[in-house]
Amino acid sequence: MTIDLGQTVSAFDTQVQAVFRQNTLQFSEWIDDLFQPVGADGCPDPAVNPMGAWNYLNNRRMVIQGAANQKPLIRLTDKNHNVLTGITGELNCQYEDMMTDTAQLRMVVRYDNWLEDYVVNGLSINEDLHIIVDPIPSNPNWRTRWGGKVKEISVSNNADGTSTIEFLALSVREHVKKLLFGANPFFPPEIQVPKMWIIPGPLRSILFATGFVNLARLFVPGLSTITNAFNPAAWINPLNPDALLNINPLSWPIQCAFVNPVIDTSMWSVLAATWTDWHSTMADLLSQAGCICRAYYYLTTDADSPNTELADLITGATTATVDLLQLFGVKTGSELDQLLNSIGKDLASLTAPTRNCVVLSFEDKSGVTGPTGTALDGLLDVIGVTLDDMITSVIFDQQTQTFIDGENVIDVDSVTPFFQTLLGVSQTLPKVIWRDGQFTGLLQKKVNMHKGPPLTIMTGGRSPSIVNQLQTFGIRYGLAELSDQLTLNIAESLPGPTNWAQQMPATPGLDNIYQGQLDNCLFAWERYTDPLRALWTGEGAYQEYIERGSGSAYTVAGWLSLAEGHWKTRAFYGFETKALNGRPWVYGVDFQLGDRLGFEMDATIYIDQLTSTRYQYDRKMPIFLELSIGDDKDKRDPIAQGIRILSGVYALVGAYLGEGTLFG
Question: CA 74 to CA 86: how far, in whole Å?
């Protein structure tokens, strides 16, 4: 067979020219159809197109990390949370978010900004103004949005001849400090029977229920009038035509995110309140259970609802309906499945607030998981935690002896979970860990080892009451017995019969001489020497430390004082770490405020919570988000926490028995 090489080359050249003519760039047309992007139809199959899958995932990672460097979207909203306009041309901006307290925003704009006349002259001094900041402007969302109420507006003529307007805003979490838990939220404060609001259960659930009732007291027409029966000035709002919409809880300006009590695995607790503010009432309970209260600023333009558990409950119900139909032999088919799923999504969308509002969300950040995934886990958790706090923290070494990839783990919550493990309750390790390296984004890693514990703890000053009482009884009884002694001496010296006796002279009332002069002499002081400290600290150890406490020795209060002094003087680790956002982990995508995070240092992984974030930039500095992991503070005393749990149970039982709190 003969091949005509010239004809073959000519044919190939013709085909090549046809290809070039077909793909010739036309500058009057877009070229997006010439280059199909990787992953246009989702992530390619790694088995079929491994390079395409790698490119897709790598590009996705770069887009997510790049989102951390975008200039934020800053907007003003009015007193009713309606968006007014965006703010641009700011000279500098700095805002923070805190896990347990109100955060601030400071922003400076030029005086000749077009908003100057509105904010300075167009608003009454009593009229509220809000600022919202979306750090990812390409994806504004209530989960990452910062919202706050403008507290101060400062107009300045500076020495350099410039004029500026400075905004100081407090985050919407400040609302938590300006709301009260009523003793009886269904009646006015002038009529309060019973005298205390007390409710036990999983912490998130009881906080949601209590918060919901107290917000209804403020916003629901009719109920808000009853609870302000002796405060006629508060009747103005319920008479407003728009107030009728507040019958729907999704129309309230302040709302609580729904909590499903069935799957609420947070630690059980007892909430008791008598017209106390939310912040101070919840602070110890939240810290004890590893939960936080987040305040979100929701806009109706957001893609999903902050009532995530309610939406999941509805969509889960539709899925369960399909499963039940199949269980009873009904063939659902793809069309029916799609219809039910569509109905579920439509119903779930109805869980979103109907207006721009502040949403208070109670979130579990403890990382504790249980065997059932229900509220029973929280009950097992409180039992295990109480036993560990009261027993394990005294008997066992506080090192958890946990390892990740062969590296030792030091957790800031360092009580060995012996009883929790027996009950099937455990604390999971964090998913986000900054590893040692030159380009990991960690700006500062600081581990403080607080050392030098004393060997002996001493407390006291007063004897137990029973000791003083027994001592007083014995002395006064002995003195009183003297008056019962009879003497025959005088009778024998007198004429006449001698068969009679006389009481000992000067003995009646002698027992009244003793008025407790020897009280607090026996068992008034007690000491405890830690054998482990004596073993490890050496001969140069500090010898003694006194914890005044309650002042009573050899009592439960005295034992608690010893335990408190022992905890205060222990050696412990404190962490203080700062990291850059997006290197490699992205705030708002990989983790949130309050999450347990870890960082590696010298082959040891230290774990603590994300306590605060600080976002700042100006004309000379690029966008910078600083993450603070830990705060180098001494953590909670496990003994005191265990006693708080027991005292809460006692208060609950006492309240229901009418012991001086509820009805007495």
Answer: 6
Q: Which two tokens stand for residue 71?
A: 């200039």
Measured distance CA(238)–CA(332) in Å, rounded: 49
1: which DSSP letter?
-
pLDDT at 237: 61
Structure tokens of 413? 């919550």
Beta strands in 87-213 (DSSP E): 90-98, 104-110, 130-134, 146-157, 163-171, 180-181, 197-202
In 3D space, the residue among 300, 312, 314, 395 whose CA is nearest the CA of residue 353 turns out to be: 300
Do 306 and 257 meet the contact criterion of CB atoms below 8 Å apart? yes
Nearest to 206 by CA among 283, 261, 277: 261
- Which whole-number Å values give the CA distances from 320 to 60, 316, 496, in the listed order? 34, 6, 110
Both tokens assigned to 644: 């708080």
d(CA 536, CA 132): 54
Spatial separation of the C-alpha atoms in residues 73 and 531, rounded to whole Å: 59
* Alpha carbon distance 600, 430 (integer Å): 12
Helix (H, G, I), strand (E, B) or coil at 447: strand
- Residue 72, preceding bond cis, omega within 30 degrees? no
Select from 171, 71, 266, 135 the least CA-distant residue to 589.
Answer: 135
Q: Are 345 and 314 in contact (CB under 8 A)?
A: no
Tokens of 580: 């850059």
- Gap between the Cα atoms of 160 and 249, Å rounded: 52
Please tell me the distance from the alpha carbon of residue 104 to that of residue 88, in angstroms, as a whole number.
19
Write down the pLDDT at residue 63: 85
- How is residue 446 annotated by DSSP? E
User: Quick check: 246 and 219 in contact, CB under 8 A?
Assistant: yes
Q: Within 13 Å, how many C-alpha atoms sit on residue 511's CB side? A: 15
CA distances from 1 to 4, 9, 402 (A): 10, 17, 77
pTM: predicted TM-score of the whole model, two decimal places: 0.77
CA atoms of 92 and 112, how far apart (whole Å): 15
| Residue with token string 């020497």 | 529
From the options 2.40.10, 3.40.50, 3.40.720, 2.30.42, give the CATH code of 73-177.
Answer: 2.40.10
Mean pLDDT in runs of 10 for the chain (664 residues)? 56 59 57 64 84 87 82 92 89 92 92 78 88 91 94 87 89 94 87 83 94 91 77 64 75 94 90 89 86 95 92 82 70 67 78 94 90 87 73 53 66 66 81 82 79 88 86 82 59 54 62 80 87 82 84 77 79 76 84 89 84 88 82 56 55 49 38
Residue pair 38/45 in contact (Cβ under 8 Å)? The answer is: no
Angle at 119 between CA 117 and CA 125, to 5 degrees: 120
Query: What whole-number distance in Å separates Cα of residue 471 and Cα of residue 477?
Result: 10
Helices (H), 290-373: 308-327, 333-349
Q: Could you tell me which residues are beta bridge partners of residue 459?
A: 526
How much of the chain is helix, strand and coil, in % rounded to 5? 35, 25, 40
The CATH 2.40.10 portion of the chain extends over 73-177
Contact 594, 99 (CB under 8 A): yes
Q: Tokens for 309?
A: 């558990």
Rounded to whole angstroms, the Cα distance separating 307 from 298 reads 11
- Whole-angstrom distance, CA of residue 442 vs CA of residue 599: 9
Alpha-carbon dihedral sign for residues 32, 33, 37, 39? positive
Q: Is 562 exposed, middle or buried (0-12, 13-18, 19+ CB in 10 A)?
A: buried
